[in-house]
Amino acid sequence: MSVLGLALYVYTVGLESGPAFFRELRPELAVTAGAVVALVVTAVAVGLLGNRVFGISGPDLAGGFAGIGTTTLGLAAAQAASADPAQPAVGYAIGYPLAVVVTILFIAVRWWPGRRDPGEPDSAPDRSAALPGVRRPDLGLRLPAERVLAVRSEAAGGPADQRAAELRADGPGARLLGQSRPRTMGLLAGYVGNRAITAYANTRSSDARVSTGYSTLFALAILVKIVCIQPIVGL
């Protein structure tokens, strides 16, 4: 039954994330490659530091890595490769809630204004009609009152002042990835691999790009995590 359950899980992941992954592969190639590198570096750090510095066994570390990646398939892979399936489960139980809480807190720290994503047309929607404190579901934005005049000035072709520049500035994660705020939140949720993070991100922004970003990294991240878990178990 466990094998059947995992097979159905993989099947549903493919149905949900497959189309978006291939559609976004080219415009998001840099982000996708960066996510793979980050996961591999994290696995190396967990393995080397945990085993050689802190003396933690490989199965415990593999479970912890699966936990911070919130991947059930990763936990199953760690248990299958371990002599004692209970060891990876302990590490998973510790890492899982930490990863979810830390990611949600990171998303909640700063309200990221929107910007255009890679691959989108140059013509952006008219943001000058946005009212103070009112959510624009079509834009995924909530503009404070002090930024509305700056946006109107920019839309009219006037010089962009400091407030207009502030509008275009994203949070630290969005600036680093070169993405809009909604897609950045989705990418973070997909990288960690947890639907609870996506659900929270959707409460912060009613934008389809959250789900698109999630699907872009979710399936690939699971595969990379499973591959990285194999050498960690043997430590």
Which key phrases capture this entry?
235 residues; mainly alpha; 2 domains; two-stranded antiparallel sheet; 2% strand; globular
Q: Given the structure, what is the number of helices?
A: 11
Which shape, going by the Cα principal axes?
A: globular
Uncertain ranges? 122-134, 143-171
What is the rounded Rg? 20 Å
Strand line-up across the major sheet: 1-2
Tell me the count of domains. Answer: 2
Oligomer: single chain
Mean pLDDT: 74
For the largest beta-sheet, the strand count, sense and barrel status come to: 2 strands, antiparallel
Give me the count of strands.
2
Overall helicity: 55-70%
Helix/strand-derived class? mainly alpha
Describe this structure in words.
- Helix 1 (2-24) packs across helix 11 and helix 4 (72-81) runs parallel beside helix 11.
- A two-stranded antiparallel sheet has the order 1-2.
- Strand 1 (135-136) and strand 2 form a beta hairpin.
- With 235 residues, the chain is mainly alpha-helical.
- The chain is built from eleven helices and two strands; from the N terminus they run H-H-H-H-H-E-E-H-H-H-H-H-H.
- The two termini are 30 Å apart.
- 70% of the residues lie in helices and 2% in strands.
- It folds into two domains: 2-110 and 216-233, no CATH class; 126-169, no CATH class.
Break the fold down into its secondary structure elements and pairings.
Elements: H1 2-24, H2 29-53, H3 58-68, H4 72-81, H5 86-109, E1 135-136, E2 141-142, H6 145-155, H7 162-168, H8 172-177, H9 181-192, H10 195-204, H11 209-233
Antiparallel strand pairs: 1-2
Helix pairs in contact: 1-11, 2-3, 2-11, 3-4, 3-5, 3-11, 4-11, 5-9, 5-10, 6-7, 9-10, 9-11
